[in-house]
Structure prediction request, 113 residues.
Amino acid sequence: MSTSEQWQTVCRREALAEHQAIEFTVNETPGFILAHKGHISAFVNRCPHLGIGLNWMPGRFLDVDRCFIQCATHGALFTIDRGQCIAGPCQGEALTPLETREQDGELLVRVPA
Ligand code: FES
Prediction:
């Protein structure tokens, strides 16, 4: 399998500001990529509680303090770095992380086929 089959470009690096998220769909998988304290994370946009999308507003995934990813439906909180649920109905479960990398000023994610 070639690199181009595994990695998909989702946005330019400069398009992703601190505490912002950009949504994407690759291989029919909805996801989001976000920047936090200089670190880039990406996850499948699916809450482990009910298997539905985390956000109601486009690009809005963080809680009011911008410390956790928050599910808009029942308020579950997930760590930004690893997607671990630390409060809410799916406590102990986790978001599905996606590998990310930066190449030539673009952000890429690897989505399972
Ligand atoms: S659907 Fe996400 S916490 Fe219930």
